[in-house]
Amino acid sequence: MPRPADADIVTYGSQSSLVRPPLAPEFPGCRPFRLTREDVDAYDGHFEYWDAHTETAWKVCEPTGRAHEQPSQRLAGQAHVIAAVRGAPIECYGTMDLILHDEGDRRRSILQADQVVYLNPGRARLPASAGLVIGEHDLPDVVVEVDHTTDVRRGKLGLYEAWGFPEVWVEVPDRTSPNRPAGRAPGLTVHLLADDRYRTTTVSRAFPGWTAAEIHKAMNEPLPSAVTTRVLERVGRALGARDGTGPDDTPWLRRQREEGRLEGRARLLNVVIRKTLASRGILAAVATLDARDLAGLTDDDVMDALLACRDAADFRVRLRRRRR
After folding, report:
1. How many angstroms separate the CA atoms of 79 and 219, rounded?
2. Residues in Cβ contact with 40 at an 8 Å cutoff, skipping those fewer than 6 apart
3. What DSSP string runs through 81-97?
4. 193 with 164: CB under 8 angstroms?
5. Could you read off the pLDDT of 48-81 as tens digits, one per residue?
6. How confident is the model over 196-243, as pLDDT tens digits?
7. Do 94 and 76 contact (CB within 8 A), yes or no?
8. Would the pTM count as exceeding 0.85?
C-alpha cells in the first residue's frame, strides 16, 4: 500500500513507523516567515516550527520575556532537587531542535520545545551538538511547552503526538498577557501517549506521583514554598524507590546528611552529659562537645568516660585517650 504523500517513514531501531503530521497545524500567537533550507542551519533565533516543504517558520509574535521563560527555568532547578533526593542525575536541556528527516535524510520539519527533560541522561542517545533527530536519538521523558501567548494544542501538540513523544506538559503561566488566546486559563495539563494518541491526565508518568496542580504551583512560585519542597522530596524518593537509589547516592547531599547526623548526635549526647554530670555534682558547662569532639568516639566511649571522670577536665582527658 503506498504511503500518503505527506507522511514520512522514521526508523526506530529495527522497526519503521509511518509519521503523518496533523492536518493543517495552526500556530496561534505566531507569525510565519520565510526560512529556506539553506538558511535554517545558520538561523540562531527561536521559532515554534519549521516546514521544509513550504520553507516557512512560525515565530511567536510577542517578544520572549520573563513570564514565558521563568516556568521552564524553575522546572530545571526543581529537577535538580528531585535528582539529589533520588540519588541519580536528571538533565533539563532547555530549548532544543527536534528534527524529523525525510527519506533523503534531509530535514523535513523542526519543532523547538521550551524545555526537554531526561530522567536517565547517562544512558540516553543524545545529540552531540546539533538537534535531536527523530528515530536516531532517544526522545526526552518529558517535553514542556509554555503557552503564555500561544496555544500549542492547535498545532505543536499534534506534531508531538505524531512523532511519538511519550509525555508533554503544557503550562499556562499565572502571569497573564493581553495577547493570550481566549479561554487559556492558568494551569498545567499532562498529555500521555497511549496507543499512539495523547490522553490528558492529572498526574505525571515520568515523575511518579507529581500532580499537574503541584507542577504548576512549583513552576509559578517566586521562591519554592515549604509545601513544594516537600513535594519535590516525595517525588525524588518515589523515583529512588523505583531505581534502587537514594539521597546518599548524591555526594554533596550525603555529606550534608552526615553532618546533620553528627550534629544531632552531639546535641543528644550533650543533654546526657549535662544531666549525668549534674547528678554527680560536677559543673557540666565546660564538658559540652561538638561534632568534631566526637569524631572517632563511640557512644560507649563517651558514657564510660562520663561515668569514670572526676571533673569536666578529666572527662575530656579520658575522651582523648580513648580516641587514640
Report:
1. 11
2. 50, 57, 107, 110
3. HHHHHHTS--EE--SEE
4. yes
5. 999 999 999 999 998 877 888 899 999 999 999 9
6. 999 999 999 999 999 999 999 999 999 999 999 999 999 999 999 999
7. yes
8. no
Three-state secondary-structure class, residue 159: helix
pLDDT score recorded for residue 271 = 92
Q: Where are the beta strands (DSSP E) in 195-299?
A: 197-201
Distance CA(309)–CA(277), nearest Å, equals 9
295 pLDDT more than 50: yes
Q: Are 173 and 187 in contact (CB under 8 A)?
A: no
Strand, helix or coil at 139?
coil
- Per the CB < 8 A criterion, the answer to whether 105 and 95 are in contact is no
C-beta separation of 294 from 266 below 8 A: yes
The three grid cell numbers given for residue 92, joined into one nine-digit string? 533539563
- 42: which DSSP letter? T
> What does the block give as the cell for 95?
530549548
**Helices and strands counted in the chain (H then E):** 8, 14
